[in-house]
Design a protein that fits this description.
2 helices, elongated, 42 residues, single chain, two-stranded antiparallel sheet, alpha+beta
Length: 42
């Protein structure tokens, strides 16, 4: 699967946007990032 630069940039932004700090540790949800990407770029 190939992604455009715009899609790659969106994925990185989404990754950090979905980050949460729990018990002094940062966690990220890849599934949330992928879902956002699919909504933005159908």
């Amino acid at each position: 699967m190939f992604f455009t630069l715009k899609e790659k940039s969106f994925m990185v932004e989404s990754y950090f946007r979905n980050a949460r700090k729990e018990n002094a540790e940062w966690t990220n949800s890849i599934s949330n990032c992928v879902e956002e990407l699919r909504e933005k770029f159908p």
